[in-house]
Design goal:
About 15% of the residues lie in helices and about 40% in strands. The protein contains eleven helices and 47 strands. Helix 5 packs across helix 6 and helix 5 packs across helix 7.
Length: about 675
């Protein structure tokens, strides 16, 4: 488990479980936009922070128009919004995320050796994860909303963080990333902070927010007070850059402008209005000279501007809105809402007889690394076991979350038409929620709703007994945590209460499971793995992250008892979970033809039944109450279960149909259902 600064998981008031199916052998690459990039000169490496929650590593030297993947550093549980390289030798990478956490990664070069191929580098991800306990630290509990920006003061050896909760923290790197400063806006003036910038000493801090004001903070003063508020933008400030001498700064905004500010005079010196839409990112090559800057954003254009004569020049058109830019040597690297990093090569003058000072621009385009983009649309089928998804590139897939696999890929087809084709008339309560914010299919189970999905087992397995039922949430938890339970029993890791109550039972279950494994699964190892995250329900921060499947490290079997919430351990070890409430439905039984089958008494005709009660059971009830006998038809004996027909709203009901399905799709009313029975016309 990673080092933690914050609350102990076991004392958190409420937790939830997220799981995501992934395929380890798929090529490295982001599946959604890249919010931030950072270049480490020492290792000739570029790091990318994605909206798919991952931080990935690339060789700065492109090969055949592509960056070669060097591995995956790790991941958050939501968008990674910003990253920064810190330390004397850039030995640490700090990341902040919409999961409300900040992570510090120790960049041990041995863990990210260059691979011969992209596929190999991803398969080596387990090596990177193996030493996670010594390479990753998580800061949680402090920010309580999305953490959007970081600002590093290398002479102070400290880094600022801020986000949508209006809180600014300063973290001391040398002392183990402890918070040494907290700036909080008054509760009546809380505004989301989107960007930060500071100088080398960390004495001055800029923050841009949704109140359209650039705040300037004096960190040296005892009160850490705001010394000025610069007004002028008419929309959210998205990025800011402070000059090395702390006398000037740049801001860009969703109002489509870039502004140059003189901090001594506390005024706007110039407004650049060359963009036609929101400006999201800025880059200055030399903070000491502060003479030239680059700007880009939503309008698919990159401009180079002069801070002396205030001229601007369009130097590139992009295919997607630009999210981040950074410079290296004579090149500008930028990321966008697509899943790729691109390089803008700036050829300086003086080469091949060109005039001194002349600059030419060429763009090296890089293909997206994945064959599939992130998921942008999903549809939960009525059986509440399967989900259809559509990715950015139009590929439609069918996922089976009950069996943790991608069941089928349909290719680029019409999503709506396929949804209609897969429609089935069945009703199962919602027992999970789906989140595709990070481009993957993330399933969330929360107590007690996750135990709402009771179904008949033979709806899943036609060979199962008709009357056997299964709770989908319970079954999913049992499957995911079986390796943990088996490992726990083998180690003898039991509390006194559990030892008295269930040791023999658990051992029996383990033995049965082992027999099943030996008897039924001599098949190929499953390709899928499942990332299982136990998270804080309050703001989504990950408490524990493990893998279920054929994965060598960080496996779910290695969880300690303290890391598993009580509601999960009770369900897995003791089969203990809350019963479904409001699970009965009122209905009335009426004879459709009293000459054929008599009516029930007024009292007997008003009934209630469980949601899962099948029509066949109601026929059995009628046969018993009315003492119905077999009839002879064409010389054959026909039982009541075959000749009694029940209908609702004029529609004949299938004997396997449940009362919940009838209520949802046929009756469609808040009143008690009216069911009519008669002899099937085929037998009259």
């Amino acid at each position: 488990m990673d080092d933690e600064i914050g609350e102990d998981p076991v004392i958190l008031p409420k937790t939830k479980l997220n799981f995501k199916i992934f395929y380890p052998k798929e090529n490295q690459g982001h599946c959604f936009g890249i919010n931030s990039i950072a270049i480490r000169d020492r290792s000739n490496t570029i790091y990318s922070a994605g909206r798919d929650s991952s931080i990935q590593i690339w060789d700065l030297k492109e090969k055949e128009g592509k960056f070669e993947g060097k591995g995956i550093l790790g991941s958050h549980t939501h968008w990674v919004n910003d990253i920064a390289l810190v330390g004397q030798h850039q030995e640490n990478l700090v990341s902040c995320s919409s999961d409300c956490t900040i992570k510090i990664w120790n960049l041990d070069e041995k863990k990210h050796e260059e691979s011969d191929s992209v596929e190999n580098s991803v398969q080596n991800r387990s090596e990177s994860t193996e030493k996670k306990s010594s390479s990753e630290t998580t800061l949680r509990k402090y920010h309580v909303d999305y953490v959007k920006s970081l600002a590093y003061a290398h002479k102070k050896s400290a880094i600022f963080s801020a986000g949508l909760d209006s809180n600014i923290y300063l973290w001391d790197i040398q002392k183990g990333f402890i918070p040494i400063l907290h700036i909080a806006f008054p509760s009546n003036k809380k505004k989301s902070i989107y960007c930060l910038s500071t100088n080398e000493t960390g004495n001055l801090l800029l923050s841009g927010s949704s109140e359209r004001i650039l705040s300037v903070w004096d960190i040296r003063s005892n009160s850490h007070e705001k010394i000025m508020k610069l007004k002028g933008h008419s929309d959210n400030i998205k990025a800011c850059i402070l000059s090395a001498d702390s006398e000037k700064c740049l801001t860009c905004s969703a109002d489509s402008t870039v502004k140059l500010w003189d901090l001594k005079q506390q005024r706007c010196v110039n407004t650049f209005d060359m963009h036609s839409d929101s400006v999201w990112t800025l880059h200055v090559d030399d903070l000491n000279e502060f003479s030239t800057f680059y700007s880009a954003g939503k309008d698919l254009q990159i401009f180079k501007s002069d801070l002396k004569d205030f001229s601007s020049e369009l130097i590139a058109n992009t295919s997607h809105p630009v999210l981040k830019m950074t410079g290296h040597d004579d090149s500008l690297y930028f990321s966008s809402t697509s899943s790729s990093i691109k390089k803008l090569q700036l050829k300086r003058g003086g080469e091949r007889g060109e005039d001194e000072g002349e600059e030419k621009v060429s763009i090296v385009q890089f293909e997206d690394s994945l064959d599939k983009g992130g998921i942008i649309q999903h549809h939960i089928l009525n059986n509440k076991r399967k989900i259809m998804t559509k990715d950015e590139r139009g590929n439609v897939d069918l996922w089976d979350i009950y069996n943790f696999k991608r069941e089928k890929s349909f290719g680029q087809i019409n999503f709506e038409e396929k949804s209609k084709e897969l429609f089935e008339e069945t009703q199962v309560p919602n027992w999970f929620s789906v989140d595709t914010t990070t481009g993957g299919l993330v399933i969330t189970l929360e107590y007690p709703q996750c135990f709402s999905g009771d179904v008949h087992l033979n709806d899943i397995d036609p060979e199962a007994p008709l009357d056997k039922r299964v709770n989908l949430g319970h079954k999913v938890l049992k499957t995911l945590f079986t390796p943990w339970m088996e490992n726990r029993v083998k180690k003898g890791e039991k509390s006194v209460e559990e030892t008295e109550e269930s040791t023999a039972e658990d051992k029996e279950k383990v033995e049965e499971k082992e027999e099943e494994k030996e008897g039924e699964k001599k098949e190929e190892k499953r390709e899928e793995c499942v990332e299982v995250i136990i998270a804080d329900s309050r703001f989504g921060a990950s408490l524990t992250k493990k893998i279920y499947g054929d994965y060598p490290t960080d496996n779910i079997r290695d969880l300690s008892s303290r890391q598993v919430p009580i509601w999960i351990s009770d369900a897995v070890l003791k089969d203990k979970f809350p019963p479904n409430k409001n699970n009965t439905l009122p209905f009335v039984l009426q004879s459709g033809n009293e000459k054929q089958i008599p009516s029930l008494s007024a009292k007997e005709s008003k009934l209630t039944s469980p949601r899962l009660f099948r029509i066949s059971k109601i026929v059995d009830f009628l046969a018993k109450k009315l003492d119905l006998k077999p009839i002879t038809f064409k010389g054959n004996k026909v039982e009541p279960s075959d000749y009694v027909q029940i209908s609702c709203n004029g529609k004949v009901l299938n004997p396997t149909m449940t009362m919940g399905t009838i209520k949802a799709f046929i009756w469609k009313s808040g009143e008690e259902m009216m069911l009519k029975y008669q002899i099937n016309p085929s037998y009259t």
